[in-house]
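Posting this for the archive.
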Amino acid sequence: MSLAHELADPLQVRLLRLLRDEGPLSRAELGDRLETPRTRLSAELDRLVAADIIAEAGPAESRGGRRSTLVELNPRLRFAGVDLGATSIDVEVVDARMETVAAYSEPSDIRIGPKAILHRVNELLGKAKVEGAYDRLDAVGIGVPGPVSFRDGVPVSPPIMPGWDRFPVREFLSREHGCPAVVDNDVNIMAIGERHGGVAHSVDDFLFVKIGTGVGCGIHLAGEVYRGSDGCAGDIGHIQVDSQGPVCSCGNIGCLEALFSGAVLGTQALEAAKSGRSSSLEERLAANGTVTARDVALGAMEGDVVCIQMIREGGRRVGGVLAGLVSFVNPSMIVIGGGLAQLGHILLAEIRSVVYRRSLPLATGNLPVVLSELGPRAGVAGAAVLASEIAFEQAL
């Protein structure tokens, strides 16, 4: 069974997406949903059954005449989703309905380079195979924490990924696993995951904002991710917010990411603990030897004023950037995810306040600003969905 060499018609892609998202459907239902003549649909279904890509799943409920036959994606289909963070690796193998078959998560360091990281990814996928999660993969999707040329399947000058520039990630994974592979920016795959199975389900126009080690924005317009002409749309972490601010990892001055991110918040927390300005952080530093963004979240929950101020200041900076995007894009929803989403409703309230205050009322009157529903799974889930998409479209 090989999706990459069997598909050649946009109708098939729509059909397979429908079966992936909704499960078994009757031939009659598919004809109605796809608005396709019965003879053409029947021929396509028969071809896909013969190719072992879809399978018949018994008779459908009667609609008053001869009972139609249910069809479904072949239950043996398997897709792999990989989400590489600055400090983590998440891998999942899913079935045709995007249900998790195997999942692995472990700390890592993206700075050790592509060969070491991708070798570990292959080991984890190999482990899933040994444990019976799949016989063969039909596609692999991977997200990386830096700019990506989606067309070429390579990272391009990623600021926090030394050694990854132009490394052939797509080619490496495709060759290793004998199936199509696709590479995207990590925030884009988070947006795809949230659209497929999270709070943005069925929302066609939304922004997914990842706030973690870095800051980025997945732009979802008209039901699809908007990547821009070269694949780097949504890189809001490198929008300048303070011309007198610190030097960013990209080399520019005063970028949003240089003023608010997981690393920056950790540094600010350490300074506040050492100076004694925050008793909560000072206690945690004494107990643990270090403090992190999570300690700031915990301090804020306990009412520590300095921790609350740090979060609010970061929220104001993010909200200011998003207010401009709302005026420009007019999305239906903004979803906040990434590691710093753990800062919770203090951060969310500050972002909302700035966005609602600084954007036009027409753009914000029906604009929810919400936390990610999938949380840390958003990226790996989106990578698996993207893998299925590339498998469905490979031969087009």
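The domain at 79-194+378-393 is CATH 3.30.420.40 (Nucleotidyltransferase; domain 5). Residues 286 and 308 are 20 Å apart (CA to CA).
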